[in-house]
């Protein structure tokens, strides 16, 4: 099946420059959206077709549309950064494209070709390039590619029609107010995902599964919830939307991928960046009891979370049933801050891109 070319149908009435600039002064996260979106259809027997860049607008859906009943939905998240010379580049978009394919396979959906994923993202950025914040800080243009099942009918089966879209939103810091450690509630009863399930697919259902536990964390005065494995309820896996890293002096460990942990692009990148900086970086198993014990005896020096939206966020306070402890005296750790700056410098074009991660637009 041929790869569709994106037909450009830009808006005749984009947002006025003054209004756009007002939004860019304090974009927040996921609050405002650019003037356009990209849509591509998939139909059984025809494949991918009708790729278009069109004005951002609501999606009309029949009440019996597949996604509304059986949740055939996947998504991705990646960022475009303004470079020092004024150009724009995305960070490792081919990895998002490959993960999008893996998510689609797990949910019985068609796999979008990598080149089509990249073409769609590039077309939207090129059209709405004035929405990419000026170089500096953490500001970026956040892209949200996603796909939904659009067949109309209540039969329980994979849809025979799908709609792929890309929308974009200017983004500031995910956690406003600078690099401040977050507090973590460890849920020892609820689980996010199970082996053989959809934990390693980026689908809305996984995030819906985290919302009650997130509310319970908030009720305990915590910013985020941490999940343990679903079998033994012992091994640390990840937060509701971020991967975790544990720092033992010069050694950095992140939980091993088990099929119930999302394979984060930032996670993979940090393993490489850490090794570039001379740290010993590896995957391994960390139990909740070990986390508490090693913090109390001083061998576990720092803990941080990472993801596309939040980049790197230090962990300050950890709470579990019957216990509470602090990491790095509740302050951002030295290794955490060093890794964070090193990754951001690559993304912002301030340091050498030795791994070839940045994808230039145009």
TrEMBL record:
Where N6-(pyridoxal phosphate)lysine occurs, residue numbers?
Answer: 202
Keyword annotations of the record: Amino-acid biosynthesis, Aminotransferase, Branched-chain amino acid biosynthesis, Pyridoxal phosphate, Transferase
Q: What is its EC number?
A: 2.6.1.42
Asked whether the UniProt record includes Ion transport among its keywords, one would answer no
Source organism: Streptomyces seoulensis
What family does the Swiss-Prot or TrEMBL record give for this protein? Belongs to the class-IV pyridoxal-phosphate-dependent aminotransferase family.
Q: Which GO terms describe its molecular function?
A: L-isoleucine-2-oxoglutarate transaminase activity; L-leucine-2-oxoglutarate transaminase activity; L-valine-2-oxoglutarate transaminase activity
Q: Pfam families given for it?
A: Aminotran_4
- The protein depicted here goes by the name Branched-chain-amino-acid aminotransferase
Name the top EC class: transferase
What PANTHER family does this protein map onto? BRANCHED-CHAIN-AMINO-ACID AMINOTRANSFERASE (PTHR11825:SF44), SUBGROUP IIII AMINOTRANSFERASE (PTHR11825)
GO terms of biological process kind = isoleucine biosynthetic process; L-leucine biosynthetic process; L-valine biosynthetic process
Provide the cofactor list for this protein. Answer: pyridoxal 5'-phosphate
The biological pathway it contributes to is:
Amino-acid biosynthesis; L-leucine biosynthesis; L-leucine from 3-methyl-2-oxobutanoate: step 4/4; Amino-acid biosynthesis; L-isoleucine biosynthesis; L-isoleucine from 2-oxobutanoate: step 4/4; Amino-acid biosynthesis; L-valine biosynthesis; L-valine from pyruvate: step 4/4
Q: Which domain of life is it from?
A: Bacteria
Its UniProt entry gives the catalysed reaction(s) as: L-isoleucine + 2-oxoglutarate = (S)-3-methyl-2-oxopentanoate + L-glutamate; L-leucine + 2-oxoglutarate = 4-methyl-2-oxopentanoate + L-glutamate; L-valine + 2-oxoglutarate = 3-methyl-2-oxobutanoate + L-glutamate
UniProt KW Transferase keyword: yes
Q: Which InterPro entries match?
A: Aminotrans_IV (IPR001544), Aminotrans_IV_CS (IPR018300), Aminotransferase-like (IPR036038), B_amino_transII (IPR005786), BCAT-like_C (IPR043132), BCAT-like_N (IPR043131), BCAT_family (IPR033939)
